[in-house]
Design goal:
Elements lengths: L5 H32 L11 H9 L5 H5 L3 H8 L3 H15 L6 H8 L4 E2 L4 H6 L4 E2 L2 E6 L6 H15 L3 E7 L6 H11 L3 H6 L1 E5 L3 H16 L4 E8 L3 H6 L6 H22 L2 E6 L1 E3 L9 E3 L2 H7 L2 E7 L5 E7 L6 E8 L2 E4 L2
Parallel strand pairs: 3-7, 3-10, 4-5, 4-6, 6-7
Antiparallel strand pairs: 1-2, 8-9, 10-11, 11-12, 12-13
Helix pairs in contact: 4-5, 8-9, 11-13, 13-14
C-alpha cells in the first residue's frame, strides 16, 4: 500500500461509516415509532386506572382522541385539573407527532383515501371517481330531489365494493327503507340479506340522541371491530331545526350543530370513512334573481363539509347534482335518473 492510496481508503471508510450510521438512525426512528404506536392512555402523565376508565367511558379510547381534545373537555370528562389535562394533551400530541409534515407526506396519506361509486358515470366523473373517505359530503335540496336515494345507493355500493365493510345509517326523519335496499342490492348484484345485515340503522329521536349515536360509531369500530366505511346522516338538521325556534335560539343551535359536525369530522379522520349527510333547505324571499334555495345550518355546516352538492329536479324526471364546493375539484353538474336498480346516466 502506497501513501497515495491512503486518502482513497479514508474516503471509502468514511462512506461506509456514514451508511452504517444512517441505517442505525433509521432503525432507531422505526423502533421509536413502533414504541409510540404501542402507547396507551394509561402511559400518559397523570393517568391512572381510575382516570383511564373515566376517559374511556367518555369516548377517549386512544391517544388521538386525547390529542385533539380541549382542556375543558378533559377536565369535565375525567375530573382532572387543567394542569394535568395540559400535560396529557401535550404528551399525546408529542407521541402522535402532530406537527408540520411535508407536502410529499400528505400525498402519501392521500393514497389511503378510497372512493365510493354512485353507480352513475356522470356523477362519479363529477366527484372524480366517487364519494371520498376521510371527508364529509353534504347533499342539500328540496324534498324529492334524491338526497335519501343517494344515501341508500351509497350504502349498497359500499357493501358491493368491500365485502368486509359496514354502513351506519342515522335516520332522523324515518326515511330508511329496507325494501329499497333490497331493490338496489338486486340491481347491483349483491345478496340482499347480506346487504341488510351489514347496514347498522339507528333512529334518532332528537338532536341529543343524534349526537350520542354519532359518538357510538367509534365504539363499533374500536370495540366491536366492525370495518365501518360509510356513515349516512339523513337528515343532518331536521331535529336542530325543530328544537331551536326563533332568532333568539340561533346562536345555541349553531354551537350545538358545530359540535356535531366536529364529531363527524373526527370519525372521518380517525377511521378513514366517508360521512354522507343530507340537509334541508329554505327559501330566501329577498333574492330576486337566481335560485332562492338555501341550505339550513349556514356557514357552520358549509365550512365543516368537505364537499357540497346541490340536488334538484331536472327535465323528464331526471335529477341534477351540482357540485358547488370542493377543495380540489371544479364546479360542475351531473344529470342522472333514479331507477329501481340504482342510478342511470341521463343526457
Amino acid at each position: 500500500m502506497t501513501d497515495e492510496n491512503i486518502p482513497e481508503l479514508l474516503l471509502e471508510t468514511e462512506n461506509l461509516l456514514d451508511k452504517k450510521t444512517t441505517k442505525m438512525i433509521k432503525k432507531k426512528e422505526a423502533l421509536e415509532e413502533l414504541k409510540m404506536e404501542k402507547l396507551t392512555i394509561q402511559d400518559l402523565p397523570g393517568v391512572g386506572a381510575a382516570t383511564a376508565e373515566k376517559l374511556e367511558s367518555a369516548g377517549y379510547r386512544d391517544l388521538m382522541s386525547i390529542a385533539v381534545a380541549t382542556l375543558g373537555e378533559l377536565a369535565e370528562s375525567a375530573g382532572v385539573s387543567e394542569a394535568v389535562g395540559r400535560k396529557m394533551i401535550n404528551a399525546a400530541r408529542e407521541s402522535m407527532k402532530m406537527g408540520f409534515v411535508t407536502g410529499a407526506e400528505v400525498l402519501k396519506k392521500r393514497a389511503l383515501v378510497q372512493k365510493i361509486s354512485t353507480g352513475s358515470e356522470n356523477f362519479d366523473t363529477l366527484m372524480d371517481g366517487g364519494f371520498e373517505t376521510n371527508a364529509i359530503t353534504e347533499c342539500f335540496g328540496e324534498f324529492g330531489s334524491g338526497k335519501t336515494q343517494v344515501g341508500h345507493i351509497l350504502a349498497v355500493n359500499t357493501i358491493k365494493e368491500d365485502p368486509e365493510a359496514y354502513v351506519v345509517y342515522l335516520d332522523t326523519e324515518n326515511t330508511f327503507r329496507p325494501e329499497r335496499i333490497i331493490q338496489l342490492a338486486n340491481g347491483a348484484g349483491v345478496d340482499p340479506d347480506d346487504a341488510l345485515n351489514r347496514i347498522m340503522v339507528a333512529r334518532a329521536y332528537n338532536s341529543d340522541h343524534q349526537m350520542l349515536l354519532t359518538e357510538q360509531v367509534d365504539g363499533l369500530v374500536t370495540e366491536q371491530g366492525k370495518k365501518v366505511k360509510l356513515v349516512v346522516v339523513d337528515s343532518l338538521t331536521a331535529h336542530f331545526r325543530a328544537e331551536f325556534v326563533g332568532r333568539g335560539t340561533l346562536a345555541d343551535r349553531q354551537q350545538k350543530l358545530n359540535r356535531h359536525m366536529h364529531s363527524l369530522a373526527k370519525l372521518t379522520s380517525s377511521h378513514n370513512l366517508c360521512v354522507y349527510v343530507t340537509n334541508q333547505v329554505m327559501a330566501k324571499p329577498d333574492q330576486f334573481f337566481g335560485d332562492p334555495t338555501q341550505s339550513i345550518g349556514g356557514h357552520i355546516v358549509a365550512h365543516a363539509s368537505t364537499f357540497r352538492i346541490y340536488l334538484r329536479k331536472g327535465r323528464k324526471g331526471s335529477r341534477v347534482a351540482k357540485l358547488i364546493d370542493a377543495p380540489n375539484l371544479p364546479d360542475g353538474e351531473a344529470c342522472f335518473m333514479v331507477e329501481e336498480g340504482g342510478l342511470k346516466d341521463f343526457s
